[in-house]
Amino acid sequence: AFIIGDFGKEVEAELLSIAEGLGAKGHIFYQDEPLGTAHAIWMAESLMQDEIIIAFADTLFVANFKLDRNKDGAIWVKSVDDPSQFGVVTVNPAGVIHELVEKPSEFVSDLAIIGIYYIREGEKLRAEIQHLLDHDLREKGEFQLTNALENMKVKGAQFVPGKVDEWMDCGNKTAVLDTSKRVLNLDSAANKLSFPADLQQENVVIIPPCYFGSGVSLKNSIIGPHVTLGDNTNVCNSVIAMSIIGENSKVDNVVIQESIVGNHALVEYGAKNLDIGDYSRIRE
Hints:
The protein is of the alpha/beta class. It has 2 domains: 31-168, Spore Coat Polysaccharide Biosynthesis Protein SpsA, Chain A (Alpha-Beta Complex); 174-283, UDP N-Acetylglucosamine Acyltransferase, domain 1, CATH 2.160.10. The chain has 5 helices and 19 strands. Helix 3 (122-134) crosses helix 4 (145-154). The longest helix is centred in the middle third of the chain and has 17 residues, at 173-189. The chain starts with a strand and ends with a strand.
């Protein structure tokens, strides 16, 4: 199940295609109001039965997903410098999660919840979320998943922490670009990056690591490091570094760094630091 806002039919079709590629049947549910993580998950309450995995879409991760089915669930965590921006957990000497706290104002633990959960009995989580909604039990104005899980724990559920090797946030522009850089570095180290056979290039310097989709055309330009170009994007007479440019876009006579450019966009002339969406037009 994918729980989203109004992202358009093209995005929905792509999500369903991802599910199909994993051998699963995809479902689209909508959260029309930003009322918290528990409220979002409730939108798919009809599917909350038996074993379920919940993953928030604004994070990328490298982790060991070996599940202990003798426990009631797992919550993946990672130590962070500033835990005040995240839900956190404390762990008892037996390795079982003792407490879940949503964005603590005072230090509780540096083990931040990264947004991936395994629940062995989805029906129990559904009941706790329904309890929050029925009694309007909000924290900081929202219905929090951590509160539902804490209620399960109080009633005897045992959750264990899962470990991640890499946790990469995608919550804002800076985080997305940093995550892209780390992914490109990881893929480069694992020899997973290669240029497509149909890459067109003329008088071009490429500074790795970079990723290019199919049908990309480059001319009289310096590209990299840490640049991602989507399918059929055209770059001419430009210098691009530490940036992500979507599909079917055109960049001409510009110097771009630390930028995100959407699909079907046009950017011409000048030096720019951009964060623009699909079908944007930027001319100087």
